[in-house]
User: Fold this.
Amino acid sequence: MTMIEKKEIITIAETFLKTTECYLVDVTVSPDNLIVVKIDSDGAVGIDDCVALSRHIEGKLDRTTDDFELQVSSSGISSPFKSPRQYIKNIGNEIEIILKSGEKMTGLLKSANKDGAVITVSGKEKQGNAKRKTTVCEDRTFAYGEIKQIKNIIRFK
Assistant:
């Protein structure tokens, strides 16, 4: 059994996805050729999107030389963001962020671009001689290289 190359799967998937509304989020290939492909879209990812990509990838691989298992799915709402496009899609959402420094916070994803994201975080602070702490909001900018993980917070009311 030959090991399937991650680069090969990325190329196959990205070539196909150029013709769709979807984009590639992540690809993993295990030593025993379990291929996991995660996709997302600015709208919604349907089962038909996953099936079409799965069939395309399978059609480009040779089952006679490669024994593999293929899983294609959408990046779930609770999955960490992997692509700048996911940050942009989720502007306005409440998120949890963990920095590579270990600092963890929650806030509102205010903006994002190709370099990083701006998160509005709030905290309680004493203002001057006031006896009570008041809520203070602050915009903090993070480069993608500083972020270990960021994902949506899902609340049920």
